[in-house]
Amino acid sequence: MPKNSKVVKRELDDEVIESVKDLLSNEDSGEDAFKKSELIVDVQEEKDTDAEEGSEGEDERPAWSNKLQYILAQVGFSVGLGNVWRFPYLCQKNGGGAYLLPYLILLMVIGIPLFFLELSVGQRIRRGSIGVWNYISPKLGGIGFASCVVCYFVALYYNVIIGWTLFYFSQSFQQPLPWDQCPLVKNASHTYVEPECEKSSATTYYWYREALDISSSISESGGLNWKMTACLLAAWVMVCLAMIKGIQSSGKIMYFSSLFPYVVLICFLIRALLLNGSMDGIRHMFTPKLEIMLEPKVWREAATQVFFALGLGFGGVIAFSSYNKRENNCHFDAVLVSFINFFTSVLATLVVFAVLGFKANVLNEKCIAQNSEMIIKFLKMGNISQDIIPHHVNFSAMTAEDYHLVYDIVQKVKEEEFPALHLSSCLIEDELNKAVQGTGLAFIAFTEAMTHFPASPFWSVMFFLMLINLGLGSMFGTIEGIITPVVDTFKVRKEILTVICCLLAFCIGLIFVQRSGNYFVTMFDDYSATLPLLIVVILENIAVSFVYGIDKFIEDLKDMLGFAPSRYYYYMWKYISPLMLLALLVASLVNMVLSPPGYNAWIEDKASEEFLTYPSWGMVVCISLMVLAILPVPVIYIIRRCNLIDDSSGNLASVTYKRGRVLKEPVNLEGDDASLIHGKITSEMSSPNFGKNIYRKQSGSPTLDTAPNGRYGIGYLMADVPDMPDMPGSSAL
Questions:
Q1: Contact predicate 530/314, CB 8 Å
Q2: DSSP 689
Q3: Are strands 39-41 and 598-603 parallel, antiparallel or unpaired?
Q4: What CATH number does residue 629 fall under?
Q5: Does residue 703 fall inside a structural domain?
Q6: Do residue 414 and residue 523 come from a single domain?
Q7: What one-character DSSP code corresponds to residue 317?
Q8: First to last CA, the chain
Q9: Structural domain range at position 97
Q10: Which of 644, 703, 669, 649 minimizes the C-alpha distance to 489?
C-alpha cells in the first residue's frame, strides 16, 4: 500500500506540474497573441515610423530626390503669374516704392508665420490637406476638402490662361509679329484699316478679336473658340503628363520650369535698361507716394497679395512638404521661399516698368511728332503767332523739352482758345500712370512694347515661354493640392486619378473657351477663391492654435526641428495672425458688398471696354461658387459631430486590429495629451490588461465599435484575434 500510495502521490504531483505548465503555456500563448498584434493606422503604402526613436521601418511614401528639388517646387508654386502682372500693378496703384513697406510688414505678420505653419503640419503628418486636418481634429476635417474644392476651381480657369499663353507663344514665330499692325480690309473699291482696330490699337484688337473672338456680353455664348479649345487641351495634356507620376515626374520638370523664368527676367531687365526711357519707368515706379500708403485700401490689397502670393490655403504647400523628411528644417524653408517670392516680385516689377518706360517713351515721341505738325499747321493758318515761338526751337527735330516749352507758351498766350486747339501735353508720366494688370498687361501692354524691340519675335517667344513656365509651376502645386490628399484618403491609384482629374477639368473648362469665356474667367477669379481661401486659412490657424493647442504645437516643433522656434511665432499664431486674417476677411466682404458684381465687356462697335453687371443667373453662379467652396467645412463638422456615417475607413482616424501586425492609431482626435510630433499613440504605451476595457470588433462586422469616451476610433479595437483559452478559475474573454 505505501508503494501504491507513493505512486499515486507521484502521479498527482505530475498532474499538478503539468497543469501548472499548461496554465503558464496558456498564459504565454495569450500574451504572445497580444504581443504579436499591434495597432496601426490604415494608411496607403506606409508604415508610420517615428524619427525621434530612430526607427528604420519601411516608408514607401515618395520623397524628394534632394532639397533643391523641393525648394524649386515650392518656389515654382508660390511664384506665379501674379508676381509678373499683379504685383507691379499694385505698386503703381498704391504709392510706388512706398507700397513695399506695408507689403513687407504684412509678409512678416501673415505670410511667413502661416507659410511656416502649413509646412510644419504637412512635413510631420506626411499627408495631404485632408489627412492633415482630419488628423488634428476630425470635426475640422472639412478644411482639407474645402482646400481641394478651391484648388479645383482655380485649376479650371488658371489652365485656360496657360492656354492663352500657348496661343501667343505659337504665334510669336513670325516677323513681323501678327499684332504689330492693324489688319487691312479690302473691298471692291478700296482698302481700309479695320475700324475696330483703328479705334483701339493693334495689340488690343488682336487680343479681343483674333485671339478670344470675344462676344459682347456673358449671356452671348457665341460657341466654342476652336483655336483656344486646342490650346486648352494642350495645356491639360502637359499638366497631366507632368503630374501622372507625382513628384517623381513633376520634380524633375521643376529644374527648368522654376529656374527658366529668372533667366528670362534677367535678360529682359538687361535688354530693357539699354533702351531709351527705361529709367523713366523705373524712376516712376520707385518714387514713393507716402500719402497713399496711409489709406486702408493699400493695406488690404497688400495683405491679399501676400496671402495669395505664397499659395496659402490651397493645399499645395502642405502636399509638397508632406514628401519631406521629418527632421527637415522647414522654418528655414519658409523664410527662404517667402523672400525669394518677394524679390521675384520686385525683379518682375523692375522689368515691367523698364519695358513700360520704353513703351511710354516711344508713344511720347509719336505724340510730340503729331502735335508738332499740328502747331506748324496753326502757325501757317495764323492761329498761333510765330513771334511767341522761341528761335532755337526746330520743329523738324523737336525734343521733348522744346515741345513742352512751346506747349506751355501757347497755353498761356491762347488761354481762352487753347481747348479748341486739341493739343496734348505729351507727358511720359501720363502714359505710365495708365495702370494695367492681368491679361491687359501681358497680352496688350507688354506685347505692344515688344513690337518696338529689335528682334521682337525672339523676345516675344522668350516672354510667353516664361509665362508658360510660371503658370505650369503654379499648376503643379495646385493639382498636387488635389491629388495628394485624395490619394492619401481614398487609396486610389495616382495615375488613374490624375488622368480623370485632368480630363474632367478639360471638359468643364470648355465654358472658358467659348467666345464669352473670358467673362467666366473673371467670374471664377473674383468669386471662387478669395473668400473661401481666407476662411480656410483662418480655420487652419484656429485648428492649430486653439483646438490642438499652441503650446503643444510649439513643443512638437522643438522636437521635430531640434530647436525651439522663436517666441515671435507663438504670438503671431495665437493672437496677431488670426486677428489680421479676420480683419482682412471683413474688409474683403465689405469691399465685395460695396463693389457692384460685374465684369468689363468688350463692345465691338465702340472698340472699348464697358462695365456690365452680371445677369440673375450669373449672380446665382457667383454665390454658388463661394458656397460650394466652403460647404465641406460645416458638412464634415455636422457629420462628425452627430456620427451620421461610419468613420471606419479611408481616413487617418480609422483603426483596425489585424493579427501579426501593428496597427498604430496616430490620432487622438479631441483634447488628448498625445503629441502631434512625437506621435505618442496608444499602441506605443504599455499593453493593457485583458478585460472589459478591450473593445472587440465582432467577426464580419463592417464597422468599428467606439470606446465609451465617444471619440472617433479611440480605444483598442480587436478583430480576428484567436479566442483566448479558458483558464482554470477564470472566464473566457
A1: no
A2: P
A3: unpaired
A4: 1.20.1740
A5: no
A6: no
A7: H
A8: 45
A9: 70-344+438-642
A10: 649
**One domain, residues 209 and 320:** yes
Q: How far apart are CA 69 and CA 336, in angstroms?
A: 14
The DSSP code for 394 is -
Give per-residue burial for 397-431: e unless 16+ CB within 10 Å, then b. Answer: ebeeebbeebbeebeeebeeeeeeeebeebebeeb
Residue with cell 501586425: 661
Q: Quick check: 9 pLDDT over 90?
A: no
* Three-class SS of 188-207: CCCEEECHHHHHCCHHHHHH
How far is C-alpha 531 from the geometric centre of its chain's CA atoms? 14
> For residue range 350-367, what is the model confidence (pLDDT) as tens digits?
999 999 899 889 888 888
Cβ-based neighbour number of residue 686 at 10 Å: 5
Supply the pLDDT for residue 317.
94
Last residue of a domain, one of 642, 662, 688: 642
The reply to whether 660 falls in a domain is no
Helix (H, G, I), strand (E, B) or coil at 127: coil
Q: If we measure between CA atoms, which residue out of 554, 547, 579 comes closest to residue 568?
A: 554
Single-letter amino acid code for the residue at 274: L
Check whether residue 404 and residue 258 sit in a common domain.
no
Q: Would strands 608-613 and 717-718 be described as parallel, antiparallel, or unpaired? A: unpaired
Cα separation, 110 vs 540, in Å, equals 13
Domain C-terminal end among 642, 675, 692: 642
The span from the CA of 452 to the CA of 456, in Å, is 7
The Cα–Cα gap between 474 and 481 comes to: 11
pLDDT at 168: 96
Give me 342's grid cell. Answer: 518677394
Interval 289-339: pLDDT, tens: 877 888 888 898 899 899 889 999 999 999 999 999 888 999 999 999 999
Q: Is residue 694 part of a domain?
A: no
CB 410 within 8 A of CB 375: yes
pLDDT band at 47 (very low <50, low <70, confident <90, very high): very low
Q: What is the domain count for the chain?
A: 2
Q: How confident is the model at residue 8 (pLDDT cuts 50, 70, 90)?
A: very low
Q: Which of 576, 575, 582, 573 is nearest to 535 (CA)?
A: 582
The pLDDT of residue 68 is 92
Distance CA 485, CA 482 (A): 6
Per the listing, cell 527676367 goes with 265
Residues at the annotated binding site for Na(+)? 76, 79, 83, 341, 470, 474
Which of 517, 624, 487 lies closest to 159, judged by CA? Answer: 517
The string of pLDDT tens digits covering residues 111-124 is: 999 999 999 999 98
Instruction: Give 163's contacts (C-beta < 8 A, 6+ positions apart).
Output: 228, 231, 232, 234, 235, 513
Using the CB atoms, write b or e for 622-631: b if 16+ within 10 Å.
beebbeebbb
How, if at all, do strands 655-657 and 608-613 pair? unpaired
Q: Which triple of cell numbers denotes residue 439?
A: 491679361
pLDDT 10s digits, 145-187: 999 999 999 999 999 999 999 999 999 999 899 999 999 888 8
- Is residue 485's pLDDT more than 70? yes
Cis, bond preceding 288 (omega within 30 deg of 0):
no
Instruction: Output the pLDDT for position 11.
Output: 53
Statement: residue 712 has pLDDT above 60: no
Residues annotated as binding site? 76, 79, 83, 341, 470, 474
Task: Look at residue 435 in the predicted model and tell me its pLDDT.
Answer: 65
Q: Tell me the one-letter amino acid at 621.
A: V
| Claim to verify: residue 429 and residue 506 sit in the same structural domain | no
Rg, C-alpha atoms of the chain: 34
The reply to whether 205 and 111 lie within a common domain is: yes
Query: How many Å apart are CA 106 and CA 112, to the nearest integer?
Result: 9
On whether the CB atoms of residues 76 and 258 are closer than 8 A, the answer is yes
